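Q: Hi! First time asking for a complex rather than a single chain. Here are the components, and I think there are three in total. Is that enough to go on?
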Amino acid sequence: MKLILLIDILGTIAFAISGVLTAINKRLDPFGILIIAFVAAIGGGTLRDILIGANVAWMRDLTYVYVIFGSTIFTVVFRKRLEYIRRSLLLFDTIGITFYTIVGVEKGIAAGFEPIICIALGTITACFGGVIRDILCNEIPIIFRKEIYATACILGASAYFLLLNTTIPLDFIVIISGSVIFIVRLLAVYFNLSLPTIYRKDELE
Amino acid sequence: MKLILLIDILGTIAFAISGVLTAINKRLDPFGILIIAFVAAIGGGTLRDILIGANVAWMRDLTYVYVIFGSTIFTVVFRKRLEYIRRSLLLFDTIGITFYTIVGVEKGIAAGFEPIICIALGTITACFGGVIRDILCNEIPIIFRKEIYATACILGASAYFLLLNTTIPLDFIVIISGSVIFIVRLLAVYFNLSLPTIYRKDELE
Amino acid sequence: MKLILLIDILGTIAFAISGVLTAINKRLDPFGILIIAFVAAIGGGTLRDILIGANVAWMRDLTYVYVIFGSTIFTVVFRKRLEYIRRSLLLFDTIGITFYTIVGVEKGIAAGFEPIICIALGTITACFGGVIRDILCNEIPIIFRKEIYATACILGASAYFLLLNTTIPLDFIVIISGSVIFIVRLLAVYFNLSLPTIYRKDELE
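A: Yes, that's all I need. Here is the structure of the assembled complex.
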C-alpha cells in the first residue's frame, strides 16, 4: 500500500514535468503552464475515479496539489538544464505512463473489477492526462501518432495479471510489469516500431 | 426488461461497426480502430451513467466488451462486403441512435427523472458517442453538420412520453417511438432536410 | 442559502445569453443555438458536481432548464437590441464567471473541501462551460487567449477565504469577492492586461 502511494506520487511528478515542458514549448503564460501541468498530472486519474465511482483522489488529499505546484516551479526555474537532457519530455512521459498504469490497475482490483476492465483503467489512467495535455496545447495526441504507446500500457497491465497467478511477491510483480511498459515504450520509440497494418496496398492508395 | 437489454446490445453492435468504418476510413492502426469502436459504442452511455450517478454499465457487465471486440473483428474482416452496401455507415449510425435513445430514456425513467431530463438523457446516449468518434477522427461532429440528427432523437423520445399516457403496451411504444427516430433521420438524409433558419437574409451576408 | 440560489440563476441566465450570442455569431441552426446555450450555462457546474460526487444540479431541479429555454428564446428574439449594447457578450460572460465562481466556492465549502480545492472548484464552475462553448463553436477557448480570465476567478475566490476569517457578514463577503472578479476581469480587458512573462527575450525568438 505504501509502494502504490509512492509510485502514484512519482507518476504525478513525471506527468507534471511533462506538462510544464509541453506548455513552455508552446510559450504559454504562467497560468497556462500551471493548468497544463495539473491536467497532465491528474486528468487520467480523475477520469478513472469518476468511472469507478470513487472519490477523486487529488480533491481529498492535498499532497497531489502541493507536488504539482512544486514540480511546476522547479521545472520552470531549471528548464534550461532539463533541456540539456535531450528527449527529457519523452523520458518523463514514459516514467509517467509506467507508474500510472500500475496505479490504475491496482485501483481497479481494489474496486473489484474484472482483469480486462482493470487493464482498461490502467491504460486510461496512463494515457488520458496526456491526451488532454496535447489537445489543450493544440498538438495531435501522442497516443494517436503512429507509435506503440497505449499498447505498452496494455502489455504491462496484462503482464501484471499473468504474474498475479504465480507465487512471485507483489512488489516484484509491480517492478516487472512496470519494466515491461517502460522498456516496450522506449524500444518502440528507439526503433520507430508501430503496430502491423491491416490494410492491403490497394486500400492505402 | 429483456427487450431493453436486447436493444442495448443491438445499439452497441451498430455503433461499434460505425466506429470501425469511420476509423478504417481514416486508415487508423488496429489499436486506433479498437479505441474508436469502443468510444463510439460506450461514449454516450458512459456520460449518461455518470450524469445519473449510476454505475457505468460496461464496467460491471463484460457482455458489452465482448460484443464490441467481436463486432470490431467481424467488421475489419468483412469490411469489403460492408462497403458494397452503400451508405452502410449511415445505416448503422441510424440504427445506433434509434436503439440508444430508447435505452437512455428508459434508464432516465428508472432513475426517477422528469420527462424533459429523460429526453435529454436519451439524446445524450444516442449522440455523444458519435461526437467523440468524430472529434477523435478529426471530422466535424455529424451532429453539428446541418442536418436533422439529434432532432430525430428528441422527436422519438417525446413520442415515447406522449404514448406513455395511452393504453398502448410498452413494447409497442418502444417500437413506435424507435420507428419515429429511424424514419425521421432517414427522411432527413434522403430529402436533405434541415431545421428552418432564424436568420434574415441581411444577417447571412 | 436563498442568495446563493439567486446568484446561481443569474449566472445561468448570463451564460445562456453568452452561449446564444456566440452561436448566433457562428450562424448555427436553432438546435445548435439551444445546445450551446445549455452547454455554456451548465457545463462548468456539471463538471463541478461530478468531481464533488454530488447530484448534477440541473437534472434534479428543472428551474435551470426553464431558465435556459427562456433566456435562449429571449436572446434570439431581441438579438438586434443586444447587439446595440457593444461588448454585450463580454459583459454577460463576465457576469457569468462572477456569479459561478461564488457558487462553486460555496458548494465546495458545503461538501467539506479544503480552501485550495474550493478555489479550484469555483474556477472550474466559472470557466469550463465557456471552454466547451468555445470548442464546440470552433473558437480558441477565451481562457487560453492571453488575458486575465481564470486569474480573476482565482483572485475573487481567494478574497472570499481571506474575508471568511474576519467578522464581515457572509452576504458582504459574497458581494466584495464577486466585485473583485468583476472589476479585475473588466480592468484586464479595458487595459489589455496579461500575466507577466516567464520567458527571456532569446526564448521567444
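A: The radius of gyration of chain B is 17 Å. Let me know if you'd like any chain examined more closely.
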